[in-house]
Hints:
Elements: H1 21-30, E1 34-38, H2 42-50, E2 55-58, H3 62-65, H4 77-90, E3 95-99, H5 109-121, E4 127-131, H6 137-145, E5 150-155, H7 161-164, H8 174-190, E6 194-198, H9 202-211, E7 216-219, E8 227-231, H10 232-236, H11 252-269, H12 291-295
Parallel strand pairs: 1-2, 1-8, 2-3, 3-4, 4-5, 5-6, 6-7, 7-8
Helix pairs in contact: 2-4, 6-8, 8-9
Amino acid sequence: MSLSPHDETxxxxxxxxxxxxxxxxxxxxxxxxxxxxxxxxxxTARWLERGGVHVLLAGDSAAxxxxxxxxxxxxxxxxxxxxxxxxxxxxxxxxxxxxxxxMSYHASVxxxxxxxxxxxxxxxxxxxxxxxxxxxxxxxxxMTRAGIPVCAHIGYRPQTTAVLGGPTAQGRxxxxxxxxxxxxxxxxxxxxxxxxxxxxxxxxxxRIVEATSVxxxxxxxxxxxxxxxxxxxxxxxxxxxxxxxxxxVDAIGERIKEAGAEWTARVARDQIGxxxxxxxxxxxxxxxxxxxxxxxxxxx
Length: 300
């Protein structure tokens, strides 16, 4: 399988330059918006990179959309390390962020550092993301000094849903807004290279952008931020309940259902399509079924 796209003639298309933190900073300075999506596998990542998406997040939302849990806190760290690396292998020219899961950076600084390093080494991450407030400043500073780029996730933080009593928008009063701005300023001062702001009124995002100098990514936070992120399943119409801030661009879920129904009907009719293998009159005896038959489409 080649990761290089080809045009209609079969010629290889020149791939885009790699997206880095410098790329995002320059785009923010020029007023150019960058696109981010949470995704979970190499194949989807490959197509999203070809579509021009700048940033992919290996989100802990995988616990819900991939593993079927109700909560993001059920995402296993080993699984997230694997999907982070899968995104980078599928989209090597895209900036890939690792979502550090629940309790992977809370118990101790030493454990947090080891887990962040694991995402950088084994997960091939370009950046790690922490759900944070100003109290995490010392940890962000420690990670930054170790060479680990950090995106600080403020506003609504899904990993704290149990404390909040459910998903709750943040920053909806003047005092709450100022507290979030203070968090953003403190986390940037500690070394955060990106900020992600979730589920806040646009006025809050505007104040954060004005008060800080790093690129700000929003989700349900208005359009004043430098970049926008969604879960790819919400964008493609794969989720049954789309968040209020997400507008699908397609109804892929319905199309998958139709494809499944069509395959079921084909199987029932013995009309499965494709080409069949044929017997050979002479030749070497066939060995056990192996990847060789699957790997070659030219072996007839």
